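Review form for a predicted model. The reviewer records the input and the model, then writes brief findings.
Reviewer: anonymous (R2)
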Amino acid sequence: MKFDTIIIGGGLAGLTCGIRLQKAGQKCAIVSAGQSAMHFFSGSFDLLCRLPDGTEVSNPVEDMDKLPEYHPYSVLGKEKVRKYAMEARDFLMSCGIRTSGDCTRNTWRITPTGERKPSWLTVSDFTALDSKDEKIAEKALIVNISGYLDFNTSFLAESFESHGTRCRVESLKLEEMERLRNNPSEMRATNIARVMDRDEIWIKAAGFVRDMIKDEDLVVLPAVFGLKNAEITDRIREVTGVRTIFIATMPPSVPGIRSQMTLKAEFEKAGGRFLPGDTVIDAIRDEDGRISSICTYNLGEIRLHADNFVLASGSFFSKGLCASPDGIYEPIFGIDLNCSDDRAEWFDRSFWKRQNYISFGAITDNHLNASKEGKIIDNLYVIGSNLGGSNTLHEGCGGGIALITALAAADEIIGKMEERR
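Model under review:
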């Protein structure tokens, strides 16, 4: 099978790149091994929350000059990063994902434990705060679904009250949830959301919540609504009649899975070929060192040929990078990596401290082309968390790197295509 571009990885970066290319007239395929990190989505895409030394960032674009030269943003260049950061919100909106926020000012999101963390673009389900210390309401009604353990109302109430909001906690009991409660492993966000997607159920639930309200000016609910339709959250707000916000639960993430499905549908709608549940097992290079084809587990001897390849298979979490006693390696192409040969430098024994292995990943030029043994492979691009040079957990930049490098790599490929015409 022959394509213009083959993308390895079906997460945020891979789908974003694929959509951009497919809409530009490319014939693309995405090979996706399984679940992406979006299934653990917090509700916000982070652009840059901290500098490597831990300094808090308020204006991500302005502070990018302070990043080291090997950081993916520095490799691309500040002007490109700003350009794509400005485009990202409109891109997501064009795909059906509504967000708030911009790249010149971080806002604050509420985590499942009630903490407040900086964010860039926040999906419409959630409320972004203007400051870390903002008082969210005078009185809040926090409502959980009876038997659901992945939404900790005590943590949330304690956090809200520390900022001056009086809280009352209630439990929502629905007979439709009793079957799920019979098996604790089924009382998860996605299973609840499948039930709540039925109009008669979410309307009933919203009505019960409305009847619980006394003098509260805020209702807080777990983000377990709208697995297939984000508008359900807007309708619930209309039914309750007071300001209603949704807070991320422990994984799996309903808004994250919905966002993944939305992007996948947009890619396929544009004519892209999505190959789920498959793994790339080898690649062939031509005599010039360029990638000519790949082979996947499911397709066996049927090779996939393309003019360009994009590596978006993720980091260690999704086996886009692997560790062995001998070192760190990228398993498909064997490309050059930014990592330490000294195992003692890979991690800190204190779980809460910065872990260096998270910053390991591919070395690229400023076109996002990978290299092998120091030689650039001009038709192999690397995007997202496959890239080295950034500690995404410590710096809070994973979503930004995924979106920005995906758009940048797509435009690099489109530019080459236009030059040939």
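Findings: Residues 2-93+257-420 form a domain with the FAD/NAD(P)-binding domain fold (CATH 3.50.50.60).
Further findings: The mean pLDDT is 94.
Recommendation: see findings above.
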